[in-house]
């Protein structure tokens, strides 16, 4: 294949239909040949191939395109090899996902429906619009770019084995759009895990903001080839390939001197020499420098002389379009009819400016030619042609995503029609996960400028466009929108305030968020908007770490709930207030039953109301989270788990793969921890932590996850691992400066100190947190069990105070009333009590925890009770509880508790029996029999009599029922789908 038809550079020698060779590029080609051979060999052997990443970089004209052409030829020669190719376009960097669309559409568009479902899984709604397979969804207003990247990772992970060996080749990466480049940088990390060869070529001319991405790509490269200039001997061979052996040495040497051995410049110069009929002899060398300058400069005058004005007009249109040029579209932009455009194409192909692709479209023979043509367009003509191109693309069905890059190049003229078009384009960009592209459109709209009535709306949209990616930009733009002289409409102003408060809160400035909403509520007319702002104020005050008047806020919130209509325009607001009330009652530890009642009132027939969804923009995700957290701390763990599972699905469906999905993983980890599924809890929490690290260090989500993960590791008996984790992430005083950490961070830190034997440090921490929470009126012993742990830390030195604190904790737990709260508090009181009193407390604790879904706490109490009985000499009773506790601890993944139970059994002279695996997936038939009677209100003793079972076995089966159902006695019927009790409590069952 001739050089000018195959990259026009790189020192290529060959002819039409012949695979030539590239001078001084042998090692570069060999790297690709070796990588391709590895992939092919792995496929033939049926083994899994490891991927490779090859990089070719160098300045303009070094032959990168020619190298990639030969790599593609080599890949095409491999049996069943799938080659995907794309090229960055200098004029297309503002078109989001342009490179990825060019790369993936040819293969993804040909998938059968079945294969498409397998390749995309649940990601079609996220990835499909980004790669151009389907229009942007009208259901989701904005997609998180990270969600698109995660979806693309999934698609390539599924596609690669199905199209193996897969070769991805991208030329001119330095001109790739930001969205494609960002994904490629992340995919480079995973490429070695797949049967794929990724080959990238670029100049070192990336935008400054892309430096980190480029370094990430380069760090993952298997081989990185820097292409250099050709030697005099290689240039001489190129000359003689063109002109034969008659070319004398002096001429060859001068060609090398004037081109500095740059392959592209050398080929361009030789083409000019040939076209002008110059002999390759020493006498011609004085003309070479001028010819080289002309060929390299390629000014407007050069192209006019070479092509003529009409043909050049078509070339200009092609240059505006960039890569993969549609003939009809270029003809429309250049205002040429079919006959004239066909003549222009023939002339451009003849002069080696354009070449025809297999798909019938056009492409510049070399990117440098396209750059030269574009730079030759006069400024005024260029602007006008961009405007024509935008309209032509829309008229041909290309859509605003493709046409908007041309709108950005037009001259501002105060055209509101253009402003509206740019706003619609921005909306489309947000719906495919390209907020940077949306912001470019909105900034261009502001520079138009928009009419005075429209300006604040554009500022508002510009602020909202960065909600998921750039909090500071959102804050600045929304403040400008709110301060705009002409202002927003009342409803849009409230929404802007809510969005601004949301970003302030997510940036850890909850005090500012609450103050903003409170001030705006004061100036807003009575009605739904004002109520919405008042509720937001309460929410941010609740979530703040410090609050001057917690009890007062609780009273005001209760008053709002009592006077708020539950139908009409304030129906959603009423649901929101109930959610806040539920969480407030939970934190105060007033009554679990009341908290559950409020949480139920926040729902609509057991589901989140439409206006209170996880991805809804009216209220945000905090209120659904508070409903789920209420369930989590009131022993309605199965209901909490369903809510949090819905959150994961909804966030993934919306493409919110950053902090939102990380928070959902945290919530699932928390509820699994509460249920005693410690291994699953650790898995969810570590997945959330990985997402948190991807966002940044020190954010609230990190504190939430690390705290519960430390607690999970403590429960598993891995004290050193928990401490190392806390040290790594700085989980220590002064904790998060403004945001309440879930659950209480100081209490968790005190537990760490106590587990490590630092009683003095623990006493100081628990004393401080107790004073702070008491002042705020928060007395929930599950959320922050500081009193019981403080009692344990004080017991050796001040046993009287320890017993008093533990008793106060039990009283508070009984006031709250959930079985797990009471049972855990009783267990902790037993740790500071002696002899028979400890046994009595632990028997009561086991009874309460057996009615809760808190598996780990139940196992802990069982082992504690067995140990206490063993110390009292009641070995037979001790063995029963130790065996039960050990089996349940094994099921929970609490290895430390299992080891302790084994030790207690060994000390008792008993041999630990073989552990049995307890299933959490379904109730056994004997468990169903007990559950059906319990739901009817039959007490345990009468269940034992009716089923002819020992009472201890009934208690054991009841505990398994509550643990598997994920609920306490009140929610058992609904959880198991059984009818509510009809008989009075204590009535005999019917035979």
Automatic annotation (TrEMBL):
Pfam families: AAA_16. Residues 8-18 have a biased composition (Gly residues). Keywords: ATP-binding, Nucleotide-binding. It comes from Kitasatospora paracochleata. InterPro entries: AAA_16, P-loop_NTPase, TPR-like_helical_dom_sf. This is Tetratricopeptide (TPR) repeat protein. Residues 25-199 form the Orc1-like AAA ATPase domain. Residues 1-22, 969-991 are annotated as: Disordered.
